[in-house]
């Protein structure tokens, strides 16, 4: 987490978490849902909050309306992030207005040109959609504050907007190191077509992380109809012994395709997101703290909406690898 020194009087949840040596979600639970935190931790957090003079957000945030925009219908993982936001919002009396966005991967111009600003909106959270320079300039004018989620700022065009990320490069490294330890040397990375190179996607970062440990061969899938032929072509390379899918929904489809192919050797399979589907199918996957990222984004936007200029540049959460039966050793 990157945080600049505060020049204001009010103590934030981030300062309480740092002083108590716990996560911001633990501070929130200790205050709002104490039965979910062990007694020793709860008392330590409360004592720290009292010592620092932390007042919480409930009174200031109550009644506010936050717009949340994301490609919900394309990537179900954003619903899980939204669950974290809803859970936190329910504790402070905040209403959420949801906007569905098109997938950035399938767009020639993936940036969001205009923010979903409406009367009565006190803050905007944008997930999975880079902002154009015009949208950023609009956001810098007097109006609702903005927080980005899952939007790495590779171009630096919106440095003043806080962003909540999950470390995709680290997730890729976890996969690459795991597969490398099993003897895999060349891996096919299955992903949707990214029509624009104007932004750095999560998949690009994951591939970069994997490439530090194994050779990564791209397997681009333009649509569902092309999936079977693309997978068959990828595994026809005798040096490819593992397939990594950019997300678990895609991994489930790859799993189905592999089960129909007359494979001459075992093919390991790894997904990404840590979803229920990967657990049911026994697919190794990278679990991401989606709900925590949603809660963190909601805290940030409410701080800003309440006039708390947190000077938080970015908050990066860490994924973890969940190993299951699908990641078999190289033959």
Number of helices: 12
Class computed from helices, strands and strand pairing? alpha/beta
Q: What name goes with the CATH superfamily of the largest domain?
A: Response regulator
Number of strands: 13
Q: Please write the CATH class name of the largest domain.
A: Alpha Beta
Strand content: 15-25%
* Main β sheet profile: 7 strands, mixed
- Indicate the mean pLDDT: 83
Low-confidence stretches: 1-8
Described by the principal axes of the CA atoms, the overall outline is globular
CATH fold description of the largest domain: Rossmann fold
The structural domain count equals 3
Give the helix level as a range of percent. Answer: 25-40%
The secondary-structure element order is EHHHHEHEEHEEHEHEHEHEHEHEE
Radius of gyration, Cα only, in angstroms? 21 Å
Protein name: Transcriptional regulator
GO molecular function, one term: DNA-binding transcription factor activity
Keywords: DNA-binding, Transcription, Transcription regulation
InterPro entries: HTH_LacI, LacI/GalR-like_sensor, Lambda_DNA-bd_dom_sf, Peripla_BP_I
Descriptive notes:
- It is a single chain.
- The protein has 12 helices and 13 strands.
- It has 331 residues and is an alpha/beta fold.
- The strands form 2 sheets. The protein has a 7-stranded mixed beta sheet with strand order 1-12-6-5-4-2-3, covered by helices on one side.
- Helix 6 (133-140) links the parallel strand 4 and strand 5.
- Helix 1 crosses helix 2 and helix 9 (227-235) crosses helix 10.
- It is globular, with a radius of gyration of 21 Å.
- It starts with a strand and ends in a 9-residue tail after the last strand.
- The model is unreliable at 1-8 (pLDDT under 50).
- Keywords: DNA-binding, Transcription, Transcription regulation.
- One of its GO terms (molecular function) is DNA-binding transcription factor activity.
């Amino acid at each position: 987490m990157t945080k600049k020194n505060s020049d204001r009087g009010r103590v934030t949840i981030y300062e309480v978490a740092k002083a108590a040596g716990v996560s911001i979600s633990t501070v929130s639970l200790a205050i709002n849902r104490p039965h979910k935190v062990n007694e020793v931790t709860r008392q330590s957090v409360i004592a720290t909050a009292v010592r620092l003079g932390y007042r919480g957000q409930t009174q200031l945030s109550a009644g506010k309306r936050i717009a949340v925009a994301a490609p919900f219908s394309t990537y179900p993982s954003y619903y899980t992030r939204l669950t974290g936001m809803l859970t936190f919002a329910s504790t402070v009396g905040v209403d959420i207005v949801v906007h569905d966005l098109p997938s950035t991967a399938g767009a020639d111009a993936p940036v969001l040109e205009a923010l979903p600003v409406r009367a009565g909106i006190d803050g905007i959270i944008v997930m999975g959609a880079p902002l154009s320079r015009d949208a950023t300039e609009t956001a810098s004018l007097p109006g609702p504050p903005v927080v980005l989620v899952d939007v790495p700022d590779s171009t630096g065009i919106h440095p003043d907007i806080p962003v909540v990320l999950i470390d995709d490069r680290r997730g890729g490294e976890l996969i690459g190191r795991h597969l490398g330890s099993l003897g895999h040397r060349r891996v096919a990375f299955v992903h949707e077509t990214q029509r624009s190179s104007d932004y750095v996607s999560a998949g690009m970062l994951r591939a970069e992380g994997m490439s530090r440990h194994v050779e990564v061969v791209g397997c681009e899938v333009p649509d569902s109809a092309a999936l079977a032929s693309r997978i068959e072509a990828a595994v026809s390379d005798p040096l490819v012994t593992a397939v990594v899918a950019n997300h678990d929904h895609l991994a489930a489809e790859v799993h189905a395709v592999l089960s129909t192919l007359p494979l001459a050797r075992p093919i390991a399979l790894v997904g990404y997101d840590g979803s229920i589907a990967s657990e049911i199918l026994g697919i190794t996957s990278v679990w991401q703290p989606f709900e925590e990222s949603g809660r963190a984004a909601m805290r940030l936007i409410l701080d800003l909406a309440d006039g708390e200029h947190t000077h938080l540049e970015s908050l990066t959460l860490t994924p973890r690898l969940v190993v299951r039966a699908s990641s078999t050793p190289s033959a």
